[in-house]
Amino acid sequence: MKKPLFRALGVGLIFVFVFYAIQIIQGMYLAMNYVPDIINTYESVDYLQHKVTFGYVVSSPIWRTMEVIGLMFLGVIVFYTGRMLRSKK
Fold first, then answer.
1. Is 47 a domain residue?
2. For residue 66, is it within any domain?
3. Looking at the domain assignment, is residue 78 inside a domain?
4. Per residue in 26-35, pLDDT tens?
5. 20: how many CB neighbours lie within 10 A of its CB?
6. What is the DSSP letter of 33?
7. How many structural domains comprise the chain?
8. Full domain range(s) for residue 74
9. Considering the entire predicted model, what is its pTM?
10. Is residue 43 part of a domain?
11. In the predicted model, is pLDDT for residue 4 greater than 90?
């Protein structure tokens, strides 16, 4: 019982690492290809001020923890689903 559980948690950790690696690579790509536009800067600020009417972004450790737990849970589900499909053959 312990061995499949540890393997499932390992697959979940792989999901977490791959997710964050994709986030980092995407951020690097966007930062390298960013071209500032001085002429149209005011128009984008004006647009943002009128479209964001309420609220603010909360970046607390609770949401990050829930994200990691959700990704690990997804990895466990994928592991056990694959294991069930392999055992039926």
1. no
2. yes
3. yes
4. 999 988 987 7
5. 13
6. T
7. 1
8. 2-38+56-88
9. 0.67
10. no
11. no
